[in-house]
Specification:
transcription (chains A, B), alpha/beta, elongated, DNA-binding transcription factor activity (chains A, B), 249 residues, homodimer, WH-like_DNA-bd_sf (chains A, B), DNA-binding, Rossmann fold, 3-stranded antiparallel beta sheet
DNA sequence: AATTTATTTGCAAAATATTGCAATAATGTT
DNA sequence: AACATTATTGCAATATTTTGCAAATAAATT
């Protein structure tokens, strides 16, 4: 068994399951662990893999933070995002609030959609950074570091200067009698304004937030034109909203 | 199970549901909580997540990539940044323009400095995300995707609502007779406003921009109170500005 | 203040790396 | 073909790193 042969086997192994261990290879190749170690070193020097204590791992093709982002797309959010797309038409001005659901929507906007997105969410703006045709207006204000959105009266004023066609809410709690509520006071104030300046309002939600309430009031459920969830519109939990004349998707 | 494997699992877990707990991971990975803690520390050091008591949470959804967009010329920017720090005092309201020099300043602000930073630059805001005591006001407006700053009249209006103690300009061209100029029209308009609303203005520069001019005019050099460069203040290229009464550092 | 819970620190045992060296194999030179 | 030269390999002695444990701190909770 010559070295080149071993190197190839090691590479194959790494590309197959992203890691190899010294002991394992030593046995498989009938050479000492030292030799395997040295082989790995050669490959690591060529940047073909990354040597780690006890073996080697594949050279990650993309930096970690990207990788982390892609997993962020849980199935249900993709479902919701795809449902939203049918509401978006070229030329519209659309408000996006902060939140992972709206972020998922922003990330999945088709490349040829020409809308103007107005948002107070850095992640949303950031997701649209590379989008070729979407115009982004960022509503400034005091930076709320934990959620990376802006809040406060400057943000509210920024929204007040907009007339939007559509407003997309991330997940808040909705309850037929109590109305739309959220956990954060500032967030509630901003959402009130977003509803005010939009012709139409869509709320994204998951089943666990339906028929629940949080501390801060945004408005009655009748402010919502449409509720989009990850489940079938026929779900019985949603019937109360249908009766209230809300479009359930 | 090698360490790299564990790190990957932890990252995946965090990106999936935004948090992990020590006990949970300890069991899943068959290692002690201490080891998990140390693993998390490693990841936290790389800014891939944030360690918290009892586990870890996902780092901000904002991708890092523009935080680290231009890594080059770090040395001279660090020099400049350190010179700036002596101008910053607790309680001040400071305007930061977009640009890699001001970004370097933002990144090197000491942890106990309590100032309010007003900026139209996403990278600057992002760099201050983890800063414990700096308040950030973001000047909203139309997103200028290539530099990831906001521009336009909304941005200018946002700055007009501020009275700042200090304004820190990134690198523009300066010329004793022609004045302060820059390559971009929108940028020039915003910088004019920034000067207007600030008591004091500091320009960061490198030697290659001194005695040069670009297409768009911001104002006469006398608008500048201080010029900070990466070279000695005694450099003869700078003498004209000293004579104009500008503080050279 | 008392109690629980989590973190830090020092430490020792285990696992893994490094280094020098000798034996062997491969290669080149006359 | 015989010889010298060089590279590869395994081994052993010696570092270094990782890991879990326990005691001491620190932080949150009651």
């Amino acid at each position: 068994m010559v070295r080149e042969e071993r190197l190839q086997i090691i590479l194959d192994h790494v590309s197959k399951d992203n890691k190899v261990m010294l002991a394992e290879l030593s046995e498989k190749l009938n050479v000492s662990e030292d030799t395997v170690r040295r082989d790995i070193k050669v490959l690591a020097d060529q940047k073909l893999l990354t040597a780690v204590r006890g073996g080697a791992v594949a050279h990650s093709p993309i930096p970690h933070h990207y990788r982390a982002r892609e997993k962020h797309d849980i199935a249900s959010k993709k479902v919701i995002a795809s449902k939203v797309l049918s509401f978006l038409k070229d030329g519209q001005v659309v408000l996006f609030d902060g939140g992972t659901s709206t972020l998922a929507v922003a990330e999945s906007l088709p490349d040829d959609l020409r809308i103007t997105v107005v948002t107070n969410s850095f992640p949303v703006a950031s997701a649209l950074e590379d989008h070729p045709t979407v115009e982004v207006i960022f509503a400034g204000g005091r930076l709320y570091k934990s959620s990376f959105t802006t809040i406060g009266h400057e943000t509210i004023n920024a929204f007040r200067n907009i007339r939007a066609d559509l407003c997309i809410f991330g997940i808040c709690s909705v309850h037929p009698a109590i109305g739309i509520t959220t956990r954060d006071y500032e967030e509630a104030e901003i959402k009130k304004t977003m509803i005010e300046v939009s012709k139409e309002t869509i709320a994204l939600s998951t089943l666990e937030k339906i028929n629940k309430a949080d501390s801060y009031y945004i408005g009655p459920v009748t402010e919502l034109d449409t509720i989009i969830t990850d489940v079938s519109p026929d779900n019985e939990e949603l019937s109360a909203y249908k009766e209230a004349g809300i479009n359930i998707i």
